[in-house]
Specification:
With 136 residues, this protein is mainly α. It contains five helices and no strands. The longest helix is centred in the middle third of the chain and has 26 residues. The protein starts with a helix and ends in a 7-residue tail after the last helix.
């Protein structure tokens, strides 16, 4: 079958990596909104970072389990939580290193963390969290 540019674009958009990136973008926007609302309310960067991350985590699990990896097992939520907890620790570490110690803005430090944690989450989600169970 010959692919037209339109079908090629649709094929690319429908790949799990691109869908995961779209969910990640929505989750990141939500994360940044919550982070900045908490900072404006006077929360510390650590509390604001945690609350933003938790909002993004919840959104990410719900959308990834339904639209990206539509074969979530009963154990997937717990696995997703473990992967996300690792991502949270990386995020907090990056906020500490780049904002607290190096003086970069909260959003700049968070952006660095988002890029690293995106790849952490994708590869572990694909290879462990939402990996199809053989025989199902």
């Amino acid at each position: 079958m010959i692919k037209t540019p339109k079908t090629a674009v649709v094929h690319i958009i429908e790949t799990p990596f691109v869908r995961f990136a779209g969910v990640g973008l929505l989750s990141t926007i939500l994360d940044f909104i919550v982070l900045n609302l908490c900072l404006r309310a006077g929360a510390s960067v650590y509390v604001a970072g945690f609350l933003g991350f938790f909002a993004g985590f919840t959104n990410g699990y719900l959308l990834n389990s339904r639209y990206v990896f539509a074969h979530a097992s009963r154990e997937a939520y717990g696995k997703y939580f473990i992967v996300s907890l690792g991502g949270l620790l990386l995020t907090e570490l990056f906020l500490d290193i780049f904002h607290v110690r190096a003086g970069l803005s909260e959003n700049g430090a968070k952006l660095i963390a988002v890029v690293v944690v995106f790849f952490w989450n994708y590869f572990l989600s694909k290879s462990w969290v939402f990996k199809p169970v053989k025989g199902s």
